[in-house]
Write a structure and sequence with these properties.
The structure holds 2 protein chains of 2 kinds. Chain A is mostly helical. Helix content of chain A is 73%, strand content 0%. A 7-stranded mixed β-sheet of chain B has the order 10-11-14-1-15-25-16. A 6-stranded mixed β-sheet of chain B has the order 18-24-17-23-21-22, sandwiched between helices. The chains are: A mainly alpha, B alpha+beta.
Amino acid sequence: MKNTEIAMTRNRPYWRQALDENWRRLRRNPTGRSGLILLLIFALMAASSFIPPLISPIYNPMHGVDPHISHTTGPSLRHWLGTDFIGRDIFSQLLAGARVAFMVGITAAFMSVVLGVAIGILAGYAGGWADTVLMRLADMIMVMPTLLVVLMAAALFGQLSIWTIVAMIALFRWPGVSRVIRARILSLKQRPFIEAARIAGASHLRIMTRHLLPNVLPLALLYMTFRVTSAIIIEAALAFLGFGDPTTVSWGMMLQWVWKTGHMFQAPYWLLPPGICISLLTLSFYMLARAMDEILDPRLRRRGES
Amino acid sequence: MLITAALAAGCRKVEGRLLRVGLASEPKTLNVWLASDASSRAVLRLVYHCLYERDPETLAFVPWLAESLPVYDPAGKTYTIRLRQARWSDGRPLTSADVAFTVRLIKEFKTPGCSRWKYVLRVETPDPHTVVFRLKKNFATFLSRTLQISILPAHKWKSVANAARHAQKPLAALMRFKNEAPVSSGPFVVRQWRKGAYVYLTRNPYFFGKDKTIAGRRLGPSIDGVLFKFYGTTDVAMLALRKGEMDMYWHHIQPGYMSVLQKNPHIRIVNSPKSAIYFMGFNTRRPPFDDVALRKAVEVLVDKQFIVKRLLQGRGSEMWSVIPEGNKRWYNPGLPRPGQGLNRKQRIKLAFRILSSAGYSWKKPPLDATGRITSRPGELLTPDAKPMAPFTILTPPADYDPARAISGTMIQEWLREIGMPAMARPMEFGALIQQVKVRRNFDAFILGYGRLPLDPDYLRSFFHSRNDRPRGWNISGYHNPEFDRLATAAQREMDPEKRRRLVFAMQAIIAADVPYLPLYLPTLNEAVRTDRFTGWVPMLDGIGNRWSFCLLKAAKGGK
């Protein structure tokens, strides 16, 4: 087994090989597979969100209204999920919401993971006082409740735009990532191949980017999937509480509209779809992350699997 | 035996005649000088009363704590007012000394919202039941605005005022006073305030109006007390109302709840007119809205009917003047109504004509050579042929008022249809007020005054150039010498007919110059249960008025 691995390493870098291997495992994993399928459905929704406004301006999720309907109505052929209180199409809003959720989830997660990985590698590789300072900073930020801090910022500075919210989520969610990455780096940097690179004259930057980074990438990817879930939930909670960006149609915003206009218990066709979508999308990312966790951590693998 | 039974029945009856009122939040204070939130004012309305009340139907003034309408002497510029034989809830007589004390307190501490008292030279009290106000000059709003103050018990507040006088910041010290057990001149007195739970008011045994007939109505109160409870969310309040745990919800109810409430036979929904204005304000100090043509173009592009029909669900009306139509005495019905009833295409065409004749142009005009509307017009160029800089429309956040926030995004889209680079931006309410009123750094905003006085004196506050200063009420920065002249004249004019003509002319100027674009006037939707109490008095600004609480009766066959 060890021999074959070494043999393959000659042709392809170790991390590429690991990624391929893990992808195969992911597809075999039932949790991962169902997560992927769910995710694909939502991606399709997000991608098709551009279509309804092209059919007719009345399907514009934010300001398109049905000229014949000026109150909330249930599902019909013309409006598959009904209309909201001013006659906007709920189905178009749901599709637009999927786009916003992906946008928010993936950008916030990506930013926080980039930040977390960079800081984790730096802290782990540099060690000493840099490590201490960075990790204490991480500890400080880690204990701050993200939602509460963003709520307070919204109250202080007025309404936040969707990108400010994304940036704030990213800023508050990196410490978890950087702690795990750092721990991995601490063990990696004692390995002979790092020693070899150093003797061969590689600079610190080259060691960090070319030798350490590829080895923690799968782990970073795993954490990114977890972060997507939390970013989507935070954005939805903010919007629901009235601190979201009101110029975007997100699922949290839809829930806020249904609540604030007093239709919470009167219009299930309006309340349920965004609620279910938030749950399912976060569930799909969570399932994917769990599956990746199992694959990356051999201790979680079931007996008999390699 | 019989007596005991009768007593027991009586006791049960007393228990049953407690009115349970739901408030949207707990009162912040019972100190009148600090009370700016709706809940505090609701409780205080039953505790401290004024000299005059408005008749619920005619809205004319009727004597309340006063015995008769004031007598004006133009030569000496004095108002003489006779007081009723009234008592405070601790049994002490309510006299002219209390009135004089309250006025002197206002003048000395310069309490907020009472700046009109600076026109009053002094107060005299020739005898315990006569008060004479000596004015510096004639002004029309003495009875309708200045005198609308709650009279305080001098024997309770004297020590408070004395202590505050020696503090470093006297007004702040006065406002810090807690006033946990206020002595009342109204029908009820605060018995207990359990923080976080309820405020309990019982009947005031010394209420002056008991069994008196004022304005053709025989006052009670015939209920035994009022229990204020607090409901943080409307959903919980609506549930309590439907279950019969609450007799009245003293708050506006969103249209979405109506269908469920209407199904309950014991719930009555009361729609009351409001004296209010919801409007879009422009910053006339700086481009782009320093140009009246642009403001007029915005006026025709904004579809007020859309806002009323959809955002308010039909529960309201379009507004065409800065004075609401329901204020019949002062509303000018002859004003133009630009854009009324037009569809989107007609609006764009009309705005196009207004803008192009004022020198605006487009890289790609919204109307092509044949007069057809192009789908995506190029950006608007100002008369000096530069692209218009993007501007923002500030609105309150959606959770504060969904109608105003969504109006903002709708107006943004309507303005973009003609190439205006508009952007709606909701902002936390306090920050929004700070931005427009103090920093005055804005282009346009959407705000509302929920409780507009009936006297049109506020036109002067909103648009007189003297009020264009930080924290001043002239938020738009509107300057017009002709308007200033009319406003000053209207304030001085004692002849109601002449004053009315002046106010009409002022409205016409504002309608022509559009510093404020009036949008809509919502109706107030309140709900009460009918199975325990009847006799709510419908009135401008809702059933939560002093008449209602004095006239409510237990319903026949009620629990």
